[in-house]
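My main concern about presentation is that the manuscript never shows what a single data entry looks like. In essence, backbone conformation is discretised, so a fold becomes a row of integers matching the chain in length. An entry of this sort, consisting of the sequence and the corresponding backbone structure tokens, reads as follows:
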Amino acid sequence: HCRLWGPNDSSIEVASLLKKGANRLTAVVAVQEFATGFFMPFLQFRGDFEVDGNKMCAKREKYEAAAINEQGHLRVCGSGTYTFKTTLTKAEAEQTVAVSVDTHDDAVELIVNGKSAGVRLWKPFKFDTEGLFVEGENTIECKMTLPIHNLFSPDNDFIKIGLAGAPVLEKAAK
């Protein structure tokens, strides 16, 4: 599904046009004279794929808790979610009151077992999680919003994006 944003918003369904194997999608976007210099044409493709700059590729099964652009995607930007699972005893669940996330200055929303612990736009990326963990298996999601810098930067000016490591569960101080 492709949605074009602009004065004449429109949506174009392309699924029926795709063939098995490799396909090439080309979009030509015209910018009105009044917007030149102030408007960047924006095109959004949605589907079961990932995008690295101008290259579409199959979704990966798993990413490690490390910078995304150190895992083969240099020009990625947008949003994505890292998911972690941890099993806790009843005592560990009750004592876990915060989670710290080590990221490369990306915006992060932390979700524990389907409940948001908040959003952080800058360091420190520490979230109050008191009462969110349970005995047994717990799911921690780090929803990231990645900057657009790498999409338009020269090849020698990439910044690291994504997580630098797994989230750290913090216990209450005694």
Q: What stands out?
A: The longest strand covers residues 78-88. Helices lie at 90-95, 149-152. The radius of gyration is 20 Å. The chain has a mean pLDDT of 77.
